[in-house]
Amino acid sequence: QAKEDGRNQAAVFSTEIAAAIAGKRTMRDDLLAALEHGELEPYFQPKYDARSLQLKGVEALVRWNHPQRGLLTPDKFLPAAEDMNVVSVIDHQILWRSVEIISELNAAHGFHIPELSVNISQSRLYDPELLRSVDGLSPPFALSFELLESIYFDDGDDRFYWMLDLLRERGIGIQIDDFGSGRASISALININPDRLKIDRSLVRPLTEKAGSSQLIKGIVDIARSMNIGVTAEGVETQKHANLLRDLGCDMLQGYAFAKPMPADALKEFCLKAAS
Ligand code: C2E
Ligand code: MG
Ligand code: MG
Ligand code: MG
């Protein structure tokens, strides 16, 4: 009896695994087809100087215009892509397309968007193809990579630091994304020596409610400043937060209080309006 139960469970289990694998395959095929058909596109979210409130740059954020499921945010497909190495292709396309779009906007409309940042996933920092992807580009504006904190949990891998040096040699700024949200230790600031860190939304959100929140941000800002590292606050949703973060010394602000991520044509309208 016990043996039979075990066998039944195994059968159920393997059916589930098969379904999961089939699901993943479908997702992978879908994604590869989507990349080929240009269904993935960058949205852009503006970033502002905390004091002058001038546009300082934009961050590219990938979106998938799925023919059946509609517009998908990265949480719906990036984790699966990461498993399957498809993310390298995504990052490459988003990088190239974003550089193209911002170059065109600046050239055709006389805008001056001074900086573009793109998110680069962990696996890509170990992928020599990244250099080839970068070497073909010569953007007429500053280009930065935003690295997720979780990138350097396996801190100490030489290939990772080698890649960072090569990127820096090519003039690419290095920013630590989602700082304070996860696994990074403060020592990452020494090891990675970023140009800028982005304070995670989870530290910004409780700013007006939780005691200690503003002291914590102030502490991060002081450390960063003493190391000549810029500080962007992300996920800034209210004007009140924006003012507080400015007073705490964050030099750049980004969030729904200013603008949501938008497709290229909306960015154009946005810049035209701002210029008029
Ligand atoms: P991230 O780089 O930390 O980007 C910030 C996320 O917060 C974005 O979500 C953005 O839409 C959202 N956000 C911005 N301002 C606010 C705000 O005021 N309030 C709230 N609640 N949310 C705000 P999104 O676009 O869904 O992207 C999620 C993550 O996916 C990104 O986090 C980044 O880690 C990753 N990602 C996005 N595009 C790419 C890409 O092209 N390549 C790779 N490898 N990762 C990407
Ligand atoms: Mg980012
Ligand atoms: Mg972030
Ligand atoms: Mg994030």
Automatic annotation (TrEMBL):
Keywords for the protein's UniProt record, in alphabetical order: Coiled coil, Membrane, Transmembrane, Transmembrane helix
GO cellular component, one term: membrane
GO aspect biological process, one term: signal transduction
EAL domain residues: 24-275
A single MF term (Gene Ontology): cyclic-guanylate-specific phosphodiesterase activity
Keyword Nucleus: no
Signal peptide feature range: none
Keyword ATP-binding: no
Protein name: Bifunctional diguanylate cyclase/phosphodiesterase
Organism: Yoonia rhodophyticola
